[in-house]
Amino acid sequence: PPAIERLSSGIFEEVITTNTIPTPKSSRFPQLTILSVANLLGETIWRIHEDSSVSSMFR
How far is CA 47 from CA 1, 5, 33, in A? Predict the structure, then answer.
């Protein structure tokens, strides 16, 4: 696809995204880094369960 060609053309040193939507192997390229949101979601769920602040995670 054209977007993948443009992103992987070398203009960017690194392209960072999250694993919130699946990235097919055919859409991956060497400069692509996919970060997991598992820890963030887990911490958010825990804080809600404990009636703690979620907004303080982002300060």
Answer: 41, 41, 28
pTM over 0.90: no
> pLDDT (tens digit, 0 to 9) for every residue of the chain, 59 residues total?
799 999 999 999 999 999 999 999 999 999 999 999 999 999 999 999 999 999 999 88
Number of domains in the chain: 1
Residue 22, domain extent: 2-58
∠ CA 29-37-34, rounded to 5° = 5
- Positive or negative torsion for Cα 44, 50, 51, 52: negative
Residue 16's SS3 state is strand
